[in-house]
Structure formats: structure tokens, C-alpha cells
Amino acid sequence: MIAVSLSRGHVELLQFLRDRTAVIFTFFFPALLLLLFGTIFGSTSTEAGVSVSRVFTASMIAYGILNTAFVTMGSGLAMDREDGTLKRLRGTPMPAAAYLVGKGLLVLALSIAEAAVLIGVGVLVFDMPLPGDAQHWLTFAWIFLLSVIGCSMLGIAVSGLVKNARNAGAILNVPVVALQFVSGVFIHPMSQLPDWLEKVASIFPVRWMAQGFRYVFLPDEAKVQEIGGSWALGTVAMVLGAWCVIGSVLCLVTFRWTARDK
Amino acid sequence: MAGLMVGGDAAAVEVRDVVVRYGDTTAVGGVSLCLPRGRVLALLGHNGAGKTSLLQVCEGFRRPDGGEARVLGLDPVGDHDALMPRLGIMLQAGGVYPWATAGEILRLFASFAANPLDTDMLLDRLGLRKFERTRFRRLSGGEQQRLSLAVALVGRPELVFLDEPTAGMDTEARHTTWQLIEELRADGVSVLLTTHLLDEAERLADDVVILRAGRVAATGTPAELTSAAAIEVLELRAGPGLDLTGLGARWTAAETTPGQYAISGALDTAGLAEVLAWFASAGADVTAVNTRRRTLEDVYLSLTTPTPVGAAQ
């Protein structure tokens, strides 16, 4: 099972890296947005005295993960379903879990690389200092993992709604872009939002992902800009954990090996 | 070999009254067939006759809307996990990573099997060695088909499903594929294949099932299907202008072109001898004799083609 999952992950990764368009869109688009936002607003400082470019860098890691986990997983699965890859694999002794683990390995590798690119831009271009203690990195690790797992599961679930794999990217980007605006990634602090929108956004994982990554990469004083004036890491863990569970249940309920009407 | 005894004596494939519907359209309308172990069965029919739908039921990709299918004695949907290590499935198209190379794809599928065939040997056998490092999307249609066949065989299956295995292949690849299927059969592997190539069915199949509009139109060995009428036509070349009225009522005879005679009717051994004796007694100098029997194609066309108006002879 482990060997099968590894050989699946290996081919997934080869497959992805050879498709240059996908590589460019997945990796460089978030980095480009970060460079643009950081450069345009970078010189200003927030009330807490932290440069806006650093705030963007931290928050954009959430966008990066949405891109590599939610969008890549969702569109990849829609594509595999439409072109019959899922069906062909189903007609082999491959255990069903090895398919998802293989995809999961791809998503994990991409997400780590994406986070590294964004953090690299933050450090090299915007002079963002890296946290020096293990505790912040440990927090980064669990927020990162919960985010990747939750977003992947939701990507798998949403892929079932995609009727035509060509449109998968566009469809999946609707919630991604909308949530960037209301979750404190593009527009920070979130207190600028109407109260009800803030509440709606708080249901979804993106707000908590971005908030968690700001905890890791910003000085502690910056918490005054968060809703409630604290990092609320307990809530971050709870909400992200809940989305992992919800995503997994949706996967189990909606997963199909073949495209509809075939 | 205790592991192989799950449903040990069962037929390779047994299909009973299977119905497949897509919305209001009935693709398969109650088909029954049986493939005993170690034989090759060809499902023959036009596009849309229900071949692939029936195959999908046997492969466990969909539940039949009626009837039942048993594969190696097991339920293709419910016993999926037990069945898959014993099957080789070749789909019609699609489902291969376009950016991966032929070698990578074959090794991936080999990694799923407990005891796979040697992938290098398979690449050589199917003439794919020179494409080992070629990405799938750069392969021609026939090359993709060959890789797809290799993928179906790499796990040493007991039973293979081949959906139009030689579609898009050139003559050489087609013959290689036929040879491979004959070797599978010699090794005791059961084969269920669909085709609309009559020479393919005639050469490979022990049993042929002809499907028309989702129903079985005829079934039998190629010999049974073609020999029902024995020799259909006796053609003779002799001097022109013979008076054929003396031949007797058991035959119909005509001089199709001057010196070329076509005789049909009682053409068993005794009948043939009588016809030749009559030509001898008429003083004809017979220079050529040719017999024609129904081919699978004649049978197939007579079963699957609606008779055109005015075609009655």
C-alpha cells in the first residue's frame, strides 16, 4: 500500500512538473500577487508598526495553500474523472486509498514548495524576519498541515460538482478569490468589513489559516489588528480541524470513480 | 494454489438477462452469455450495439439495471477488491497520464500487481521499447493502444477484457496483438473482447456473440455461424453456351458471363459429384472449379443490416 502510494505520488509529481503552464500558474501567480501588493502598499506600516508587506506575506501563505491544495486537488480530480484516469485506475488492484494518498503527496509537496517561495519572497524582498523559536515553527507546522488536509478534502468534494473539467479552475477559483477578500488576506484588518460579512467569513477556514500564519510571522504586538485583539490559536485549531472532518465526510459521500452520464 | 480457488469452477464470465439503460435509452436489452475458462469470446456488433456497456457491467464499472453478471464466480461490483488482481482491463481510450512516458506508465501499473510481468519484456513484445521515454501524448493512436494492452496484461491476469483492442493499430501491430491474444489463450487465460472487425473475430474467437441493438442476434463458434449453409455457390469455368436445363431441379444454375457458371442448391459431397458428372457427360471441358461459403461477414451483415427495399433476389 505504501509502495503503491509512493509510485502514484511519483507519477503525479512528474506529471505536474512537466506541465509548465500548471507550474507557472500554481507557483508564480501567488508570488506575483505578493510582489505587487507588497510593492504597492509595502512602505506603509500598520497601526501595530509592522510593514504591510510583511502582513501580506504571512496572509498570502493561506492563498498559496488554497491554490496548491484546494484548486490543484479539485481540478486534478475533475480532470482525472473526465478523461477516464480514475476509471482506468479503478480497473486495477490499486487500493482506492492509494489514489488519494498519491494525490495527497503531490499536494503536500506543492504546498511546501509554495510556502517556501512565498516566505522566500517575504524574506528576500520585504525583509521579513523569520521566527527564531521552535514554538512558532511548531505552530506553523500544525496550521500548515490542517490547512493542506482541509483544503484538499474540500477540493475533492467540490470536484464532484464540476461538470466539465475545462471549467474546473474557473469554478474552484470563485470561492478562493471571494474568500481572500473577506478573510483578511487582501483586505486587512478584517474589522473594515461589515459585521455580518465578518461573521460569514469566520465560518470558512481561510480567515483562520491567514490569522494563524500572521501569528507565526508577525511580532506579537500585531495581534491588536485581529478581531478580538488576540491570535485565538485555539479557535484556529478547532475551525481548521472541523473543516478537515467536514471535508472528509463530504469526500466519502460524494466521491465517484466515473464521470456522470457515462 | 488454494488462493485461486475462490469460485474455482465457475465460468470466467456469466451474464444473465443483463439490462443497461441510460435514461430512456436501453443500451443492453436482456443479454445472456457465457465465457468458459480458457476460451476467447468475441462480442461483435456495430457501434452502439451495446458491446461496451455490457463490458462495463462485467468490469464492475456499473451495476446492471436488470439481470446479473458473475465474473470468475464473483460479483463485479460487490467483490471488486477480490476480483481486480485477477483481471486485466483494456479500456477503449483515455485515462493515461499524458505527460508521463510509456515506461513510467507501465511501471506504475506494474507496481499495483503482486507479481507483475517484466515490464521490459512487455515493452519489447509490443514494440514499444523505442517509445519507453516518449511521453504518452506524443504517441500515435496505435502506440497508445499497444501501451494500453500492455497495462492490461502486466498483472498476469486470469481473465482479460479487451475493448476493441486493435482499433487504430497498423497491420503489423494488429498481427502482433493477435499473436499475443493467442498466446494468452494457450496459457489458459480467458479473453472477452469486443470488435467490429470480422477477420479478428474469425481468427481469435472460440465463440462469437453478435449483438444488434442491445440484444443477442446470433451466437456460436465462427465455424457454426458460417457453416450453416455449407458450400453456398459452386463456380465452374468451361466452354460457353452449355444448356443448363438438363442439370436437374435440385440446383439453380446460371451462366454469369460466357463460360462462367454459378451453381447453387444441393452442394454436399454427393451433390458436387453429380454436378461435375453432368458437366463431364455434357462434354464440357472444365478448366476451373471454385466453391464459395458464407463468411462471418455474410452472416454478420445478414443479421445486422436491415434488408434494403428491392434487394430481394
From TrEMBL, chain A:
All residue ranges annotated as the ABC transmembrane type-2 domain in the record: 21-258
Organism from which the protein derives: Actinoplanes utahensis
Family that this chain belongs to: Belongs to the ABC-2 integral membrane protein family.
Keywords for this protein: Antibiotic resistance, Cell membrane, Membrane, Transmembrane, Transmembrane helix, Transport
Gene Ontology annotations of biological process type: response to antibiotic
Record PROSITE patterns: ABC_TM2
Signal peptide range in chain numbering: none
GO terms under cellular component: ATP-binding cassette (ABC) transporter complex
Topology class, membrane: Multi-pass membrane protein
Location of this chain's protein in the cell: Cell membrane; Membrane
UniProt protein name: Transport permease protein
InterPro entries, per database record: ABC-2_transporter, ABC2_TM, ABC2_TM_bact-type, ABC_2_transport
Gene Ontology molecular function, alphabetical: ABC-type transporter activity
Transmembrane parts of this sequence: 21-41, 61-79, 100-125, 137-158, 170-190, 231-255
